[in-house]
Amino acid sequence: MIFNELNSDNFLLFAVKNYENPQAVTKEDFDKDLNHFKYIKRLLRKYKNGDELKIHLLLNHFIILYNIFGEATTPMLFFKIEKELWSSIKSFIIFLGKLPEYPKSDIHNIQVDLDCLEELYKIYNGKKDTE
Fold first, then answer.
1. Mean pLDDT throughout 32-50?
2. Which of 64, 72, 73, 99 fits a 20 to 30 Å CA distance from 31?
3. What is the number of domains present in the chain?
4. Cα 103 to the chain's mean position, in Å?
5. 50 is in which domain, residue-wise?
Protein backbone atom coordinates (compact mmCIF):
# COMPACT_ATOMS: atom_id res chain seq x y z
CA MET A 1 0.00 0.00 0.00
CA ILE A 2 1.28 3.46 -0.90
CA PHE A 3 0.79 6.23 1.63
CA ASN A 4 0.70 9.56 -0.19
CA GLU A 5 -0.77 11.37 2.77
CA LEU A 6 -1.45 10.34 6.35
CA ASN A 7 -5.03 10.69 7.52
CA SER A 8 -7.24 9.25 10.23
CA ASP A 9 -8.24 6.37 7.95
CA ASN A 10 -4.73 5.12 7.24
CA PHE A 11 -2.66 6.24 10.24
CA LEU A 12 -2.93 2.98 12.20
CA LEU A 13 -2.12 0.89 9.15
CA PHE A 14 0.91 3.10 8.46
CA ALA A 15 1.99 2.77 12.10
CA VAL A 16 1.64 -1.03 12.10
CA LYS A 17 3.49 -1.32 8.79
CA ASN A 18 6.45 0.63 10.21
CA TYR A 19 6.37 -0.82 13.73
CA GLU A 20 9.52 -2.66 14.74
CA ASN A 21 9.62 -3.50 18.40
CA PRO A 22 10.81 -7.07 18.98
CA GLN A 23 9.82 -6.87 22.64
CA ALA A 24 6.20 -6.03 21.85
CA VAL A 25 3.92 -9.03 21.59
CA THR A 26 0.44 -7.66 22.21
CA LYS A 27 -1.81 -4.90 20.94
CA GLU A 28 -1.44 -3.29 24.35
CA ASP A 29 2.33 -3.05 23.76
CA PHE A 30 1.67 -1.34 20.42
CA ASP A 31 -0.85 1.05 22.01
CA LYS A 32 1.62 1.85 24.79
CA ASP A 33 4.25 2.71 22.20
CA LEU A 34 1.79 4.96 20.35
CA ASN A 35 1.24 6.86 23.60
CA HIS A 36 4.67 8.46 23.19
CA PHE A 37 3.07 10.77 20.60
CA LYS A 38 0.56 11.84 23.24
CA TYR A 39 3.32 12.43 25.81
CA ILE A 40 5.29 14.62 23.39
CA LYS A 41 2.16 16.58 22.54
CA ARG A 42 1.34 17.15 26.22
CA LEU A 43 4.89 18.24 27.13
CA LEU A 44 5.17 20.60 24.16
CA ARG A 45 1.76 22.10 24.87
CA LYS A 46 2.83 22.83 28.46
CA TYR A 47 6.04 24.41 27.15
CA LYS A 48 4.10 26.61 24.73
CA ASN A 49 1.84 27.68 27.60
CA GLY A 50 4.81 28.92 29.61
CA ASP A 51 6.00 25.85 31.51
CA GLU A 52 9.55 24.58 31.53
CA LEU A 53 10.83 22.79 28.43
CA LYS A 54 11.56 19.27 29.67
CA ILE A 55 14.31 18.58 27.15
CA HIS A 56 15.55 15.26 28.53
CA LEU A 57 12.09 13.77 28.86
CA LEU A 58 11.11 14.93 25.37
CA LEU A 59 14.35 13.58 23.89
CA ASN A 60 13.63 10.21 25.48
CA HIS A 61 10.18 10.08 23.88
CA PHE A 62 11.51 11.14 20.46
CA ILE A 63 14.32 8.58 20.59
CA ILE A 64 11.93 5.79 21.60
CA LEU A 65 9.63 6.64 18.69
CA TYR A 66 12.49 6.74 16.17
CA ASN A 67 13.80 3.42 17.51
CA ILE A 68 10.37 1.81 17.12
CA PHE A 69 8.96 3.41 13.96
CA GLY A 70 12.17 4.48 12.20
CA GLU A 71 11.92 7.21 9.57
CA ALA A 72 8.13 6.89 9.61
CA THR A 73 8.18 8.74 12.95
CA THR A 74 8.65 12.12 11.27
CA PRO A 75 5.41 12.16 9.25
CA MET A 76 3.59 10.49 12.13
CA LEU A 77 4.63 13.30 14.49
CA PHE A 78 3.32 15.98 12.16
CA PHE A 79 0.06 14.11 11.70
CA LYS A 80 -0.58 13.43 15.40
CA ILE A 81 0.44 16.82 16.79
CA GLU A 82 -1.22 20.16 16.05
CA LYS A 83 0.42 22.85 13.90
CA GLU A 84 1.09 25.23 16.79
CA LEU A 85 3.71 22.77 18.07
CA TRP A 86 5.36 21.98 14.74
CA SER A 87 8.23 24.45 15.15
CA SER A 88 9.26 22.75 18.40
CA ILE A 89 8.91 19.31 16.84
CA LYS A 90 11.07 20.39 13.93
CA SER A 91 13.75 21.59 16.38
CA PHE A 92 13.97 18.12 17.94
CA ILE A 93 13.96 16.44 14.53
CA ILE A 94 16.82 18.65 13.33
CA PHE A 95 18.75 18.10 16.56
CA LEU A 96 18.40 14.32 16.18
CA GLY A 97 19.42 14.47 12.51
CA LYS A 98 16.11 13.02 11.35
CA LEU A 99 14.96 15.74 8.93
CA PRO A 100 15.03 14.11 5.49
CA GLU A 101 16.94 16.15 2.92
CA TYR A 102 15.03 14.57 0.05
CA PRO A 103 12.31 14.78 -1.02
CA LYS A 104 11.70 18.39 -0.09
CA SER A 105 8.35 18.74 1.62
CA ASP A 106 6.25 21.19 3.60
CA ILE A 107 8.28 20.22 6.67
CA HIS A 108 11.20 22.19 5.26
CA ASN A 109 9.06 25.37 5.27
CA ILE A 110 8.22 25.14 8.98
CA GLN A 111 10.05 27.66 11.16
CA VAL A 112 12.35 26.25 13.82
CA ASP A 113 11.74 27.06 17.48
CA LEU A 114 15.09 28.74 18.11
CA ASP A 115 14.69 28.76 21.90
CA CYS A 116 14.04 25.04 21.87
CA LEU A 117 16.97 24.36 19.53
CA GLU A 118 19.25 26.50 21.69
CA GLU A 119 18.30 24.45 24.77
CA LEU A 120 18.99 21.23 22.88
CA TYR A 121 22.44 22.41 21.83
CA LYS A 122 23.23 23.48 25.41
CA ILE A 123 22.78 19.85 26.39
CA TYR A 124 24.86 18.69 23.44
CA ASN A 125 27.67 21.11 24.31
CA GLY A 126 27.52 20.19 27.99
CA LYS A 127 26.47 23.61 29.25
CA LYS A 128 24.49 23.95 32.43
CA ASP A 129 21.24 25.89 32.76
CA THR A 130 22.96 28.53 34.89
CA GLU A 131 25.44 29.57 32.21
1. 97
2. 99
3. 1
4. 19
5. 27-124
